[in-house]
């Protein structure tokens, strides 16, 4: 089985880890996510009726 | 040098350039860097959606300590699933059929989960080697069995991915060869075989995605167990 040939093992290992460390996390972390939408609360805001100061 | 069915898995070299380099680097051209625009194009939106949903689904049931591994696990998932799916195209080389790469990913990451467990909570990590409620007589045997099952995990992780993808590619090559061989003699059988090939290809696409997911899921489970 050619996968068991030890000759390219080391450099396949090194290159796959180099790609895994250098290229991918940069692209993954660059994706940003906005805050999730919050549901509206059912309570209505307390408002005082404007009482004119005269 | 014998040319056999396994020849497709030899790491290809063209004009002394190992082509696995191209197979490892070029897929990332499909992932553009996200722009600061609020509404981006379809590719970026889909990738954004996939990465976010996957990260949430993987890490929803785990502690904040496990969330520190989020970038690593999501990158790993993206890595394996891209390489697997691109390998389903004809004439491409799938680096994840190489045992060297899969063991190279599995052993260090598994070892990292074990070492994190032993460093932060050594007693609890050792306690995993003996399930609760074991009868006293079985204790020594079970510790040995659990240790063996712990030590075999990296090999299982690596070999599972390699074997699944190798077997899939091998089957596709064999059935395609059979279809071609039948076309001149028995075209009806060739049609049936080509339908089989189509179904097998669909299965392999599913396997490509599932195996990537399983790899990352098991790693996250080993991590949760140890943190």
TrEMBL record, chain A:
Stored InterPro entries: ATP8_metazoa (IPR001421), ATPase_protein_8 (IPR050635)
Subcellular location(s) per record: Mitochondrion membrane
Keyword Repeat appears in the UniProt entry: no
Spans through the membrane: 6-24
A GO BP entry: proton motive force-driven ATP synthesis
Primary localization: mitochondrion
Ion transport is among the record's keywords: yes
Function as written in the Swiss-Prot or TrEMBL entry: Subunit 8, of the mitochondrial membrane ATP synthase complex (F(1)F(0) ATP synthase or Complex V) that produces ATP from ADP in the presence of a proton gradient across the membrane which is generated by electron transport complexes of the respiratory chain. ATP synthase complex consist of a soluble F(1) head domain - the catalytic core - and a membrane F(1) domain - the membrane proton channel. These two domains are linked by a central stalk rotating inside the F(1) region and a stationary peripheral stalk.
Protein name stated in the entry: ATP synthase complex subunit 8
Species whose genome carries this gene: Monopterus albus
Lineage: Eukaryota, Metazoa, Chordata, Craniata, Vertebrata
From TrEMBL, chain B:
Reaction catalysed by this enzyme: H(+)(in) = H(+)(out)
GO terms for cellular component: mitochondrial inner membrane; proton-transporting ATP synthase complex
Membrane topology: Multi-pass membrane protein
Location(s) in or outside the cell: Mitochondrion inner membrane
Superkingdom, taxonomy of origin: Eukaryota
TM spans (from-to): 12-31, 66-87, 99-118, 138-158, 170-189, 195-223
Keyword Ion transport recorded: yes
InterPro entries in UniProt: ATP_synth_F0_asu (IPR000568), ATP_synth_F0_asu_AS (IPR023011), ATP_synth_F0_asu_bact/mt (IPR045083), F0_ATP_A_sf (IPR035908)
SUPFAM superfamilies associated with the record: F1F0 ATP synthase subunit A
Keywords in alphabetical order: ATP synthesis, CF(0), Hydrogen ion transport, Ion transport, Membrane, Mitochondrion, Mitochondrion inner membrane, Transmembrane, Transmembrane helix, Transport
Family affiliation: Belongs to the ATPase A chain family.
Subunit structure: Component of the ATP synthase complex composed at least of ATP5F1A/subunit alpha, ATP5F1B/subunit beta, ATP5MC1/subunit c (homooctomer), MT-ATP6/subunit a, MT-ATP8/subunit 8, ATP5ME/subunit e, ATP5MF/subunit f, ATP5MG/subunit g, ATP5MK/subunit k, ATP5MJ/subunit j, ATP5F1C/subunit gamma, ATP5F1D/subunit delta, ATP5F1E/subunit epsilon, ATP5PF/subunit F6, ATP5PB/subunit b, ATP5PD/subunit d, ATP5PO/subunit OSCP.
PANTHER family linked: ATP SYNTHASE SUBUNIT A (PTHR11410)
Protein name: ATP synthase subunit a
Provenance organism: Monopterus albus
Lineage: Eukaryota, Metazoa, Chordata, Craniata, Vertebrata
UniProt gene name: ATPase 6
